[in-house]
From TrEMBL:
Subcellular location per the Swiss-Prot or TrEMBL entry: Membrane
InterPro entries xrefs: AceTr, Gpr1/Fun34/SatP-like, GPR1_FUN34_YAAH
Keyword Membrane (UniProt): yes
Keyword field contains Transmembrane helix: yes
The protein's name in its UniProt record: Uncharacterized protein
Pfam families per UniProt: Gpr1_Fun34_YaaH
Membrane topology, from the record: Multi-pass membrane protein
One GO cellular component term: plasma membrane
Organism: Botryobasidium botryosum (strain FD-172 SS1)
Transmembrane segments annotated in the record for this chain: 44-61, 73-91, 111-129, 141-158, 164-183, 195-215
Family statement drawn from the similarity comment of this UniProt entry: Belongs to the acetate uptake transporter (AceTr) (TC 2.A.96) family.
Length: 233
C-alpha cells in the first residue's frame, strides 16, 4: 500500500490554519521512523511445487507404478503439502491481488485436504461404504471428481490469455479429472491408469511453471520461458 503525504498549499490556507500550524510547530516532537514498504514475495512457486509433488505421487499410484494399488501413502502429502501449503499460497495470492491464483491455490488446497480426509479412518467416510452400501463407493467418488472436473474446466477457460505453460497445466488437469471421474463411474482400471498418466503430465507442467517462478534474472543465470499467449487488444 503506497504511503501518501498530504500537503496543503499556501494559497488555500486561511488565518486560522496558519495559526494552527504555528502552534503545532511550537510543540515538542518525537522522531518517527519513516514507514517501511515491504514487497510481497511471489507465492505462486510454493503453490505450484506443492500441487506438482502431491499430484505426481498420486498419479504414480493411479498408474500402479511399482505394482502399488493402495494410495493411502499420499494422505500425508495431501494434508501437509498439497493441502496446507497450497492453502497458504492461496491466501498470499489474495494479499498480492491475484484473483486467479488465489482461487486456484486455495481451492486445490481444499481439494487435497478433502481427498486426504476420505482415507483417514477416523473420518468414517470409507467406513460408511461397507455392507449394503459398498457398491455405492465408486459412484460417490465419481460425483466427487465430477465437481472438480467442472471447476477445473472453468479455471482452464480463464488461462487462455495467460501463458502456454499455465494453460497447458489446466488443460491436462481437466483431462485428468475427467478420466478419473469416468474410471470411477465405470470401475474401469484402464481408464483410471490413463488418468494417472495425464496426471503425471500435469505435474510436469506444474513443476516447470514453479521453476519458472524461481529462476528469475535476479536469482540465477537463466530463466525458463512460459510462452505468453496473445492478449486482448
Amino acid at each position: 500500500m503506497a504511503y501518501v503525504e498530504k500537503n496543503t498549499s499556501s494559497e488555500t490556507r486561511n488565518g486560522a490554519g496558519m495559526s494552527q500550524d504555528l502552534e503545532y510547530n511550537q510543540r515538542p516532537h518525537i522522531a518517527h521512523a519513516a514507514p517501511v514498504h515491504r514487497q510481497f514475495a511471489n507465492p505462486a512457486p510454493l503453490g505450484l511445487f506443492s500441487f506438482a509433488s502431491t499430484t505426481l505421487i498420486l498419479s504414480f499410484f493411479n498408474v500402479q507404478a511399482r505394482h502399488i494399488t493402495e494410495p493411502n501413502v499420499v494422505v500425508g502429502m495431501a494434508l501437509g503439502v498439497g493441502g496446507l501449503c497450497q492453502l497458504l499460497a492461496g491466501m498470499w495470492e489474495f494479499a498480492c491481488g491475484n484473483t486467479f491464483g488465489a482461487t486456484a491455490f486455495t481451492s486445490y488446497g481444499g481439494f487435497w485436504l478433502s481427498f486426504g480426509a476420505i482415507f483417514i479412518p477416523g473420518s468414517g467416510i470409507l467406513a460408511a461404504f461397507t455392507g449394503p452400501t459398498a457398491g455405492q463407493l465408486h459412484n460417490a467418488l465419481g460425483i466427487y471428481l465430477m465437481a472438480w472436473f467442472i471447476f477445473t474446466a472453468i479455471m482452464f477457460a480463464g488461462t487462455l490469455r495467460s501463458s502456454f505453460v499455465l494453460s497447458g497445466l489446466f488443460f491436462f488437469l481437466t483431462i485428468t479429472f475427467m478420466l478419473l471421474m469416468i474410471g470411477e463411474f465405470t470401475e474401469n482400471v484402464t481408464v483410471t491408469k490413463t488418468g494417472g498418466g495425464f496426471g503425471i503430465l500435469t505435474a510436469a507442467f506444474a513443476f516447470y511453471a514453479a521453476a519458472a517462478g524461481i529462476y528469475t534474472p535476479e536469482s540465477g543465470y537463466f530463466v525458463l520461458p512460459v510462452i505468453d499467449l496473445p492478449k486482448r487488444h
